[in-house]
Amino acid sequence: MYTDKRKAKDVYLSSQILGASPEKLVIFLYEGAIKSLKRAEFALDKSDNNGAHYELIKAQDIISELKQSVNQEVAGELPKSLVNLYDFMNSELIKANLGKTKEPIGPIIEMLSELLESWQEVLAQQNNI
C-alpha cells in the first residue's frame, strides 16, 4: 500500500515539474532548499550529524543550481549580486556543516524565504497579465 501511494506522489510531482514554467521551477528550488535547511536544523537539534550533513549538502546543491540558472547576460547589478548572495549562502552552509552548528542556517532560510516571496510575486503578476 505504501509503495502505491509513493508511486502516485512521485508521478504527480514529476508531472508538476515537467509542466512547470522556468519561474515555477525556481520557486520549487527555493522551497526545496528551505525545506532541507529546516530539516538540517531539526537534525542538529537531535544531534543527528549524518542527517544534518545530508540536508545541508542537499541545500547547497539546490543553491548551486539556482546560481547556475542566473542569466548573467542581463545588464545591471542584479545578476552579479544574486550570484554573490548564492556564494555567500553556500559558504555559510559549509561552515554550518563543518561545525555542526545551526546558527548560520536561520539567516539563510530568511534570505531564501525573501527571494521565494519575490519570485511568487513575479509569477502572480505574470499570471494577471
How would you describe the overall organization of this protein?
The chain is an all-alpha fold and 129 residues long. The protein is built from five helices and no strands.
- Estimate the mean pLDDT confidence: 88
Number of strands: 0
Largest sheet, if any? none
Question: What's the total helix number?
Answer: 5
Q: Which of globular, elongated, flat, extended, rod-shaped describes the shape? A: globular
The succession of helices and strands, N to C, reads: HHHHH
Distance between the termini: 44 Å
Task: Supply Rg.
Answer: 16 Å
Determine the structural class based on helices, strands and strand pairing.
Answer: mainly alpha
Characteristic terms for this protein:
129 residues; mainly alpha; 5 helices; 83% helix
Write the layout of secondary structure elements.
Blueprint (H helix, E strand, L loop, with lengths): L1 H17 L3 H24 L3 H20 L9 H22 L5 H24 L1
Helix pairs in contact: 2-3, 2-5, 3-4
Q: Quick summary of this structure?
A:
With 129 residues, this protein is mainly alpha-helical.
